[in-house]
Amino acid sequence: MIPQKLLQKSSQEKIIRDNQIIICRIRQMGNSQQSPKYINKNNHLINILPQKQLIEDTLDESSIFNIADIRSPYTEELNSTARGDIRKVSDMIEMDQGKTRSKIIQTKKGMNVTLYESELPSTCELLNYIPLIKREKTRELLNSYESPSGHKAQALGSQPIVQFLKCNERLTYQGQWLRQQRDGFGLCFYQNGSIYVGTWVNDLRDGHGRMILDNNDNYTGFWKQGKYHGFGTLISSDNFYEGHWEDGEKNGQGLEIKANKSKYEGTFKKGKKHGSGTIKYIDNQIYKGEFVDGQYEGQGEYHWNDGSHYIGEWKCNKMHGIGVFTNKANDVYKGSFSEDKKNGIGMFKWSNGTILKGIWVNGSLDGQATITKPTGESIILYYKNGQKIA
User: Fold this and answer.
1) Residue ranges of the chain that CATH labels 2.20.110
2) Adjacent-strand bridge partners of 315
3) H runs (alpha helix) in the chain
4) Of 36-45, 273-282, 370-379, 380-389, where does mean pLDDT reach its minimum?
5) Which residues are 181's β-sheet partners?
6) What is the pLDDT of residues 20-72, one digit of tens each?
7) What fold characterizes domain 129-237?
8) How far apart are CA 251 and CA 266, in angstroms?
9) CA within 13 Å, CB half, 385
10) How many secondary structure helices (H) and strands (E) does the chain include?
11) Does residue 215 sit in helix, strand or coil?
12) Are the C-beta atoms of residues 107 and 120 closer than 8 Å to each other?
């Protein structure tokens, strides 16, 4: 016999037994934002994710749906579940709204919970506990996460823990659902040991969240359709990056620190240094200027740790074009470069004031050169492969 308190007196409803399916007419919930709560026969309280056009929760705490009161072929299956077996999801109630059906999710340790079928995957298992997190660092990363809106993993205790298959991977998820997809705030454990806590949209990581890999490399920031997108911080064993992302790649302004302690601050494009930026190496050598596809290219200046420096044009990480190079003795060359070598017309000025004007080929003087001393006296000399011949 079905308890009479199951139905509210103010509603128009009827119960029809037909092929062990109970059809209930109850009024719709509308846009209510309250999460309906259901108590199963084991007194396990579960919050169901609110959604639009769900049926209104017409049960009160004094009207508990006791599965044992329904005589159907499912009774033995439920009893076997209570003994600790695992069974597939079984249909128990069908609402005549045509869209929303509830199911009994049967799990280990005899826990049977009434949930909306439209919220959960077609085949899943409800668990009592989340997977064991063995590493203390992983637990710290998980427990310390808080979204910009104030969500924390610890607040998910009232949400069901569901295990299901997706793309041949067994996932464990605790959080909110919408139309059989993860949607809202939730915690997901992946088969490879990774953990994600944050927001979901249409079953994809979307919004703000933290991904923790098995080796504790982690990303905290914004996501879009499953990829890093927006501002975020990536921390790994060989790299630190804080800045903007687009479609899973560094894009825009950011700060990157490598394992070799080199530090770059500037702009990125499709994962590579691109635009203006400054990179400082562990030995205090510095490049400041333009980048293209991760390389020095365009206008820039480089300072070596011996005091020498170059200001001018670059291509493919090399001095290329017009520039000025000053060595540690304060001698200065101003002219044309090709692949890090003096090449073309140039002028070399020694620190004592003597000036040489000539032509360089692959870093060596070649042809006529004019030398002007500080006194104003000038002489003409000829060179071949850097050697004076006349």
Assistant:
1) 129-237
2) 318
3) 74-82, 136-143
4) 36-45
5) 178
6) 332 232 223 333 333 333 333 333 333 333 333 332 332 333 333 333 333 33
7) 2.20.110
8) 10
9) 0
10) 2, 30
11) coil
12) no
The strand pair at 37-39 and 21-24 is best described as: unpaired
**pLDDT 10s digits, 247-283:** 999 999 999 999 988 999 999 999 999 999 999 999 9
Shortest CA distance to 26 belongs to which of 93, 90, 71, 74?
Answer: 93
Paired tokens of 318: 């090399």
| Bridge partners, residue 197, by sequence | 187, 210
Nearest alpha carbon to residue 294 among 319, 265, 274:
274
Bridge partners of residue 341, in order along the sequence? 338
> pTM, whole model, 2 decimals?
0.70
- The pair of structure tokens assigned to 352 is 């004592």
- The DSSP-derived string for 283-335 is TS-EEEEEEETTEEEEEEEEE-TTS-EEEEEEETTEEEEEEEEE-TT--EEEE
Q: Could you report the per-residue pLDDT of 65-87, keeping only the tens digit for each?
A: 333 333 333 323 323 333 333 33
Residue 69, SS3? Answer: helix
